[in-house]
Design a protein that fits this description.
The chain is of the alpha/beta class and 272 residues long. It starts with a strand and ends with a helix. It contains nine helices and eleven strands. Strands 1, 2, 3, 4, 5, 6, 7, 8 and 9 form a nine-stranded mixed β-sheet that branches.
Amino acid sequence: MKHAAGIVLYNPDIERLRENITAISPQVTKVILIDNASKNIDEIKALAAEFNNIIYIRNADNFGIAKALNQIIDKADELGVEWVLSLDQDSVCQPDIISTYDKLAKRAKENVAIITSKYEDNNVSVDFGLVRAYEKVKFCITSGALNNVRCIKAVGGFDEKLFIDMVDYDICYALTRAGFRIIRMNYIGFCHEVGQSTEKTFFGKKIIIFNHSPLRKYYWVRNSIYLWRKYHLGSEELSRVFKRMIQTLLYEDDAFSKLKSMCKGLADGLKL
């Protein structure tokens, strides 16, 4: 079974990207790089030239994560690849991630759209709650996800209105509502960092504070509200937004600036 990998680039740290490509390149037939108009283009091109299975596509502007992911899916489809692994530019996978996923992919039913795994975050510990070899889940992050090209295209691909943040939630909502399944393996497949995450206690419960920039806060809230409306979600999803706003105010630096961005995201999400 042929596999490809796809990485969305935007001003990547070149050494970290080298680690990323070095880890995945031997495992797949092609590594598709979609560059959202990075400023360090010369370094990226020089790095890509070190590998013999890179497809490099440069966008004229930063068109966002969702559009770039659709470009990866379209290119994989053009190449006749059934499964494509999506990776963030700073994620580094295990040397056996494809062979491990492939064992399950070969046995998977036709309605399995994504195979994913646990990941290691250098900043915080993540409890995935897995007790079996693999389990059906509702959501997964885009990085480290092995995507079935046919299934992703069947639901219309990634929603390009989102630009960045909640792109992963949206595709998972779309897939599960269409009857497809997402499977997470009880295996640590890659290293991935979500912002500059720290652990705090909120009303006696351990929570993760992501410490994202005001711009990322804006998109997270805007897109959360958009998905709440798009999929007619309940009050639980709405309360998650307000909890995140309170946690930002309590625990993060530059809290008022971030809260202002989040309030703007709330208003814009109602209009998107």
